[in-house]
User: Fold this.
Amino acid sequence: MKKRILSAIVMLIIVIPVIWLGDEVFRIGVGIISLLALKEILDLKKSHKPYPYFVQFIAMVSLLLLVLTEYDGYSILYGITYRGIAILLLSLLGLSVFYDEKKYSSQDAFFLVGSILLLGTAFNAMILARMFDLYLFLYLILIFIFTDTFAMFMGMLFGRHKLIPKVSPKKTVEGSVLGSLIGTVVAVVFYHFFVAPISISIIIVTLLLSIIGQIGDLIFSKLKRENNIKDYSNLIPGHGGILDRLDSTIAIMLGFLIFYTLL
Assistant:
């Protein structure tokens, strides 16, 4: 527990200034985090040989370009457009033809491309949310923090019925429901005072984002179980890896892209 608390303090010391400064500092920070997240995905192949280094390089370049590409299609990296990203993604698929399937199969290629599109879109949405408004970004983060935290505590206090035991044995229906309710209330109150007056649609969207966040948590938990690992990495002592901490946030950011016109 002491290690977990110390790690959390260190993370806050690093993350808070990056979020506050925004602009290029935030873009670079998100870009680095996205690469670390992809590395954790690449390391999931415990029962096979690692991805070829050239494939890993193209995957990381593709992800970084997708993450840093602005909503109008142009990247801060020398005006590279979605055309360049498409070329790199197609290269990842095409390379599977030239490698032995034990080293890099077509299934590996499609899994890798899917991972890049998922992470790239989610982390790009994170940058867009921060570009729109600092407080809107904090509102989205609060949904994740309070839903995740109180789902755990409420589950420990009142949990009686397992949610999906095969995926996450410790999660309960009671914890999930109470976590979403508390997360929604806290985030909505913050939204009202710092973003804009609330409405029924804001309350509904916030609740949906909270639920989406929990689904994201379950998706990444299932991926861990399928790969027989407890954590994605040991990058953050006591917390695991980037994907262990940002699983819900990744899903919420995708949800933000769906509902942003309502916010």
Observations:
- The CA atoms of residues 33 and 242 lie 7 Å apart.
- The beta strands are 162-164, 168-172.
